[in-house]
């Protein structure tokens, strides 16, 4: 397809006609490109998006790489054959639910390539999907080259994991990555693996798809806040956020102690960026670039101040569609063989072309595909817009199984105190004995040991740690997987222990009893008594979360849920 064959891909502020001194000049005698004293092209023209596409694709590939890396490292223990919530059992339940219906019904309810694979070794299937995703995303990240086939494969592979991931993949950023990845398919040429595919210019429809995405993400996040928790209206939410967010980092420890007026400023700034700035997208190029700068700056601040998985990194991706080649040119070297030089030459050819070349069949097909994409996104946006306008707005919800257009939001309510579930084990024969020594298990990143410094892991993500945050302000009956985890710890299960940072029974026989204790946590005061002792946290016991349990106590519980019973330690067989 030719660079000028798509109406929808024509540069913003077309290069084909320019006004000079109030009169239109035809491209037969185009104005020369501006040149610097060294007689080399000085600046890229505005309105083209060749370099934008490269930056977008590489940024998206980076997020895919992180997501598949998390999947490879954690999925076997979470949803594998003997995982906390086995995906094979989930798929069997889906089959049973649609018994008597065609196989297509189950497919559309849970779209995943798992339906095509052998279920006898789900761990292999999960690793295969993750490794394929890692390989493809690495290629795009390193080379900057992609086509529709590669991007479709990445999207389908990740969707296959999300749709069998159950609660572990229930976060808003999973749907956000799938929607972003779906748009990324149409950002690319069909076959060509070139960073500058001259016959496939970046579609304006796709670019506006990304802009529509970031508009809904930010506005949805802003509206859910002002509708969801009065602390966003009285400007006090940031008094609590740093301490009570799911997985704080070391910087949050210090930000929590900021002056009250700074927290009020933060909250007002949040409302400005989420409720007002999104409308800059529709006010022309300069305001659109300002929107992109402000949104990226906002996301960087969020990245610095907390471990929110790859959410904020991912939110930067659609913001990049606000910048054209002229705005992003500084990211690329100006050498004679560089991409920047090639784009300058393509822009020069475009200004010197007397008449556009006739559109061929490939151009027409591409145009039909892009228009169809626009119609699809517009149609699927109807319930999303209705939700945005509703006083009963719900966040992080998909209205279609492919998660092409979704609702978004974050921190619609802010918890005012932090509670944690601490898992403890003892080798004592009697859990009630006064001399029973209970030892704490430590998770990878969530608060536990008061002396342990908060971690800094974004964009990486520990799914179990995040779910433990939710479990702490719910009950274990609402989170049955936590008893499954307890049973695996009683058996010394290696896969489950790999999800933790510290096993207090390492090199010893697993505990006889496991219990869950409920604690209230607060940051220590920097420079205060507890901080000088090395404590980052001050904790106080609330009470039991679940009572002491032995492996045999869980046997019937496991059986009714069809969970594989962990192999008991040898002493339990005597």
UniProtKB/TrEMBL annotation:
- Cellular location of this protein? Endoplasmic reticulum membrane
Lipase maturation factor 1/2 C-terminal domain ranges (all copies) = 404-547
Which ranges does the record mark as transmembrane?
Answer: 50-72, 128-157, 296-316, 368-389
Record-level GO cellular component terms:
endoplasmic reticulum membrane
Q: Which Pfam families is this protein grouped with?
A: LMF1, LMF1_C
Q: Domain Lipase maturation factor 1/2 N-terminal spans what residues?
A: 169-328
Establish whether keyword Ubl conjugation is in the entry. Answer: no
This protein's UniProt keywords: Endoplasmic reticulum, Membrane, Transmembrane, Transmembrane helix
Per the record, the domain of life is Eukaryota
Instruction: Specify where it is mainly localized.
Output: endoplasmic reticulum
Region Disordered, as annotated, extends over 9-39
Query: How does the protein associate with the membrane?
Result: Multi-pass membrane protein
Q: Name one GO biological process term.
A: protein maturation
Q: Which family does it belong to?
A: Belongs to the lipase maturation factor family.
Q: What does this protein do?
A: Involved in the maturation of specific proteins in the endoplasmic reticulum.
| Annotated PANTHER family | LIPASE MATURATION FACTOR (PTHR14463), LIPASE MATURATION FACTOR 1 (PTHR14463:SF10)
Name of the protein in its database record: Lipase maturation factor
- Source species: Mus caroli
